[in-house]
Amino acid sequence: MYRVTIxxxxxxxxxxxxxxLSVIVATYNRSNVLRHTIESVLRSSVSDFELLVIGxxxxxxxxxxxxxxxxxxxxxxxxxxxxxxxxxxxxHGCRAARGRFIAxxxxxxxxxxxxxxxxxxxxxRSGADLAYAPVAAAARRSREELARGDLRFILHGASxxxxxxPYVFVPxxxxxxxxxxxxxxxxxRPAVECYTESSQDWxxxxxxxxxxxxxxxxxxxxxxxxxxxxxxxxNREEHxxxxxxxxxxxxxxxxxxxxxGGVALDLAARKSFPGKPLSMKRFWRKLSYAPCLRLGxxxxxxxxxxxxxxxxxxxxxxxxxxxxxxLER
Length: 329
Prior knowledge:
There is one protein chain. This protein has about 325 residues and is of the alpha/beta class. About 35% of the residues lie in helices and about 15% in strands. The strands form 2 sheets. An 8-stranded mixed sheet has the order 1-4-3-2-5-10-7-11, with helices on both faces. Strands 6-12-8-9 form a 4-stranded mixed sheet. The longest helix is centred in the C-terminal third of the chain and has 15 residues, at about 280-295. The chain starts with a strand and ends in a 7-residue tail after the last helix.
């Protein structure tokens, strides 16, 4: 593997000084959307960070896209062998991270400008090991629908207790954790070895250790799930990423208000913010998951087992939807 450190005339971090935060972005051949994701980090209200962009053996111009920012806080590493999913690059980034805190961001997701600040404040205030924000997952939209403002979102990660509960899906892009927690829990397991997403497997392992995992209660991340975007990698689609990058650049507060204001928002999820009662749907879901938790099995993994699916089913299906070749292992 090789490492390219981006340089600029005026480094933001003094040589040898550890940053407050390390942000890890795993990427593979989507340089056209990667630039928008990086911009969302650079617009953050927290500036004391290093941004580690880890290429999964990229063959496109990702290195050039990163270099074009000319910011010494950003470093690009391209792995020599393609791992096929984010656990390998994320583990590499975590080993290289120097910050007191570690955050992850998928290469097609976005931070709201105050996300990192709110998460770090939650960690400092509560003493938690990991803080995560509720996440707005944007439904796929055509150029025409975006132009009309016809938007749809589902909220992930909110919990009534304000603490992580395993029946709630919390994307890794929402996490900010203490570096000590990464060492205590260990590396991400490869997706082909998991019955659920490798991110949810890691979070569940932290929960089983009794770690304190807190929800900030403030919408902080916008995701564009590739599982509902057929051929998005193969076709190098960018129109949605470009649209939301513009919205976040122009008026992030207005976008947040629009999402939370009820533009086809999953109301049951929205009512699950800390201090609000669980919807009946979530109440029964939580009740049905209780036996799994007593057995130490992640509820999503249990669902996979009940359906008769084996390990790695999720990543194989996700690669098919994205338009990527099957994993050769």
